[in-house]
Fold:
Amino acid sequence: MNASLAARDILLAQTESSRRSLVASEDALDSFIDRNFDRLQQEGGGDSLGALRGQLLTATASRLSAELQLTGAKSALSRGDWGALAQSLGDDALEALARQRKALGRRLGRANVGSPEKMDLRSQLAGMDEALKNRTQTAIARLQSDIVTLENDTRDARSGIRRLVLQGDLSSTSLTQIYELQQKAEIAQRQYATLLSRTRDLDAEAMVQIADSRIVSAALSPREASFPNTNLIMSLALVAALGVGTGLAFLNEFYVGGVTSVSHLAMVLPAPVATAVPRIDEKKGQFTVADTIVDAPLSVYSESMRRLRASIDQSARVNGSGCTVIMVTSSLPAEGKTTVAMALARTYALAGKSTLLLDADLRRPSLHKYLGLKPEYGFLDYLRDPGMLAEDAQFYAADPRSPVLAVLGRSRSEMPADRLLQSSLFENLLKNARAVMDIIILDTSPLLPVVDARYVAPHADVIVNCVRFGVTGQNDLRSAFAQLNDSIRPGTPIFSVLSHDESSVTGYRYDEYYTD
Structure:
């Protein structure tokens, strides 16, 4: 079968070559007659030959015009240009339908959205499109039929011209040339017919081959299935599942996943965990959950802030003399650092400490929103050019709900903020504030997206690093902690805070100590 099909493929290539030769030989005879038509007509064609020539030219011109018309109609149909389509086909009824559709389209554009009129116009437009398509298909089919008829007329005219030329009283030179071309055409026709017949024979031969094989004996039924080996596959699947599951759990626990407990955070970062701030929702009338420090001073949330304050006090000896600067930061945005900074500031202020809360996040200040204030000027304006501020311009305000003093931001910086935080203005402001305040809390930008917090860190006496429960990746935590550790002064304590804690760390045994 393969041998027969291979021979057929070879003959197919030869058949295609023979077909092209046949077409070329037929065209050569017609071309000779066209080039020498006047001479052949004088030698023996007469008026009949001229009449056939006129029919041939008319049929050829009409066919070319019809083909051009068909091409233009198909192009207009593909573009959906009904007006051009009607002009190409020369159909008055189609042109009238196209004008009606255009008018419907204009009425549809002016109709109100969702109105019954618009829905009715859309239905009419769909019906008009269907009518246009049907009319177009009919016109194109009629045009294609005309082209086929004109092609037949062209062939008939050429056959008649060839027959009259051969029947005429031609000169020996003309007869010799025509005979030679005619013989070439006949030879090409015979070769093409032979190759075509042989190709069909090989197709039939390939289909009637009989395989030279026989059944020696019937196959024996096996005692058990050779495939699939269920026990082996299940054992391998179990081993693979345990390995993949253990590997993914290891990666999630130590590298990829977020922190889900205080003990987990203590294992990830080499810094003591000062507190876990529970996740609570804002109450009606609150700008931020930090308002809970004032609204519910004996709540679990307020106690978590006092736990953070106690850790800072024990480490920095805040209860002695002098001012302590506390920097609150995080690895990434939206980890709760601004809320923690405000809640911690209110905790200190309510404990009798003179407290200044400074919005040092020049890239995205938000402290004024949490206080419900709209300052005319911001800390950025002061650092950028204090001389341009009016004499009564203020970028600081008192917390409406506690004794905290706040230095507020207003808008984002339009220039690199790290340069402003390295300026003498910033250093002098902190120096002057240290002289009159007990506690200064700096709410800074996150560590990984921008570098601003790394220039604020050397001014801090204590660092509070906020980590959001189950969100921040462990690799991000380690990278941010390394940057922070390289930026602070030697010996500066760093405390971790697990914010938005959703675990059940606060047990039911302590409920009697809290009042929400």
